[in-house]
UniProtKB/TrEMBL annotation:
It comes from Gelidibacter gilvus. Transmembrane segments: none annotated. Residues 13-151 form the N-acetyltransferase domain. Pfam families: Acetyltransf_3 (PF13302). The keyword Endoplasmic reticulum does not apply. It comes from the Bacteria. This is N-acetyltransferase. GO terms for molecular function: acyltransferase activity, transferring groups other than amino-acyl groups. Belongs to the acetyltransferase family. RimJ subfamily. Keywords: Acyltransferase, Transferase.
Length: 181
């Protein structure tokens, strides 16, 4: 476990998470489809989620990508996930992608989870700069980035291509290690 509070805990993805992760992703497909299409495509059945978890655990061991799971402390539910991706160990930079289930949206939990995961990634993994990309209309994500201490840097033109849609401009938010010069 990398973090625990009164309401939720955060841990690296584990095989035992398969059923609850699949439940989160399948039950929130409509909510997540625009910005997490690949993750959803890889988790359509329990079996595909089990395979996804095996691949992501291997990826974490190789330090290519890390998936963190947010567990509700009052049930067995997984309420969200945070993916640390696009890692560049030479310049100590990575990017967060995240989602939270509809029932838990708007409670500030994801901002707290991003703050806790940011601390872990900086202190334990040694990254110095973290990024979040969000579309300006995804106000929940923008508010999560800002509420987690990330600062807006730029608008990136045609940065993201949703399934069967035109490319979207994305807002870049960044957090740098406080003692970084």
């Amino acid at each position: 476990m990398i973090y625990s509070s009164e309401h939720f805990s955060i841990s690296l993805l584990q095989p035992k998470d398969a059923l609850q992760l699949n439940k989160l992703l399948v039950s929130n497909t409509e909510r997540f489809i625009r910005f997490l299409p690949k993750t959803l495509e890889e988790n359509t059945t329990l079996e595909s989620t089990q395979y996804y978890i095996k691949r992501k655990i291997k990826s974490a061991k190789k330090r290519n990508e890390f998936v963190f799971i947010i567990h509700d402390k009052h049930s067995i539910d997984i309420i969200g996930m945070i993916i640390l991706k696009n890692l560049d160990w030479k310049i100590k930079k990575g990017e967060f992608a995240y989602c939270i289930g509809k029932r838990f949206k708007g409670k500030g939990l994801m901002s707290k989870a991003i703050k806790a995961t940011t601390n872990y990634v900086i202190e334990e993994l040694g990254l110095e700069t973290l990024q979040i990309l969000s579309h300006k209309t995804n106000l929940s994500s923008v508010n999560t980035a800002l509420g987690s201490g990330f600062e807006w840097q730029a608008t990136l033109k045609d940065e993201f291509k949703p399934l069967n849609k035109a490319p979207l401009d994305m807002e870049l938010f960044e957090f740098s290690r406080p003692d970084r010069f």
